[in-house]
Design brief:
Layout: H1 5-13, E1 16-20, H2 24-36, E2 40-45, H3 62-66, H4 71-82, E3 87-92, H5 100-104, E4 113-116, H6 121-134, E5 138-144, E6 147-153, H7 161-164, H8 177-180, H9 184-202, E7 212-217, E8 222-227, E9 255-256, E10 262-265, H10 275-282, E11 288-290, E12 294-301, E13 304-311, E14 316-319, H11 324-334
Parallel strand pairs: 1-2, 1-4, 2-3, 4-5
Antiparallel strand pairs: 5-6, 6-7, 7-8, 9-10, 10-14, 11-12, 12-13, 13-14
Helix pairs in contact: 2-9
Bound molecules: zinc ion.
Length: about 325
């Protein structure tokens, strides 16, 4: 049986995949889709590469980690080197209610598939809203500890994420990659499932697209498949009642970054900022380097030293603390809000 063929290859070359998050899952799906010759791949990521990422995030190397490169940029360089025939569009950004629709449509038309590479609930529900609102298939993936799951939600021909899971779990009730870790082969398999499902969608092989939620535990060697073909709920708050609560939410709280002694701060309503000007003003408080897309330096605050990285969209990562209050105080004091 032919899976791709010349006709499929031509369809892939004309298509656009949009991946949110190039961590453990997104690295794998982005790599496979770029190697497959998908015409355009957009990646969105807010994080910096850390040494602790390398065991499960195959687009990065030690140098990316020691230089703390933004994942979006490090991934783009690697993907360009893998296949120069693919247009890779990279955004260093947090995917939020404020910018989600703008980012998804930033190439002038909606992408052909949305892929969740972030493995966090806030983004999943936002992606689901984008998927239903714009009518773009959404490829879901999750990996935690030794367990993984994958599913595909195609608007108009089956359930959406909220038909089966109306609301995100309450914070603190689920294990996170911080508390439970992720076994690298699990994220590698889920990322591969996501790439395969995306390829079927992009090549128009809709009858092959998975209609179930697949879950497995790699350490236990168990596997389950839940049929979703009749799971569409007419009362679903998203696809049934056509309300996009996550796209309309305003929350913008500082977040501790998973597995790192660092906090991301982005005050609501922060617009684009002039990095050169900010670099000059921060120069009075410490040594700062100005790059094209960020400034970075060290500052002393309350007797401790923190590394501050600030991006053009007003977002900052405060490295050296997991305390969101401390990070917020540093942001207000040195960047202002
Ligand atoms: Zn639904």
């Amino acid at each position: 049986m032919e899976f791709v063929g010349s006709e499929g290859q031509a369809k892939l070359a004309e298509s656009h995949a949009f991946i949110v998050g190039v961590g453990a899952l997104g690295c794998v799906s982005a790599d496979l889709l770029v190697r497959a010759g998908v015409g355009k791949v957009t990646i969105v990521d807010r994080d910096l590469v850390e040494l602790s990422n390398l065991h499960r995030q195959p687009l990065y190397c030690e140098r990316d980690a020691t230089e703390k490169r933004p994942k979006a940029m490090a991934a783009k360089s690697r993907l360009n080197a893998v296949n120069s025939g693919v247009e890779v569009v990279a955004h260093i950004a947090d995917f939020t209610a404020e910018n989600a629709l703008e980012l998804v449509q930033s190439e002038g038309r909606v992408p052909d598939v949305l892929i969740d590479g972030t493995d966090n609930f806030e983004t999943r529900f936002l992606l689901n809203d984008c998927s239903v609102k714009l009518g773009v298939p959404y490829v879901y993936g999750g990996a935690i500890a030794s367990r993984g799951s994958a599913a595909v939600f195609v608007p108009g021909s089956g359930p959406c994420l909220r038909c089966i899971e109306p609301n995100p779990p309450k914070p603190g009730t689920q294990p996170t990659c911080e508390t439970a870790g992720v076994l690298a082969p699990v994220s590698s398999i889920i990322g591969s499932y996501q790439a395969a499902e995306a390829m079927k969608i992009l090549m128009g092989q809709h009858d092959r697209v998975m209609e179930s939620m697949l879950s497995f535990d790699l350490w236990e060697g168990t596997r389950t498949r839940v049929d979703l073909s009749s799971a569409q709920d007419a009362e679903c708050p998203c696809c049934g009642l056509v309300r996009f609560a996550f796209l309309e939410s305003q929350s913008s709280v500082p977040q501790a970054l998973c597995g790192q002694n660092a906090v991301q701060v982005k005050p609501g309503g922060a617009g684009m900022i002039d990095l050169e000007q900010l670099g000059a003003s921060l120069g009075e408080s410490g040594e700062f380097e100005v790059h094209d897309y960020m400034i970075r330096g060290r500052i002393e605050h309350g007797g401790d030293v923190f590394e501050l990285t600030c991006f053009a969209d007003g977002r900052a990562i405060v490295d050296g603390t997991a305390d969101v209050g401390v990070a917020r105080a540093i942001y207000s004091r040195y960047i202002g809000s």
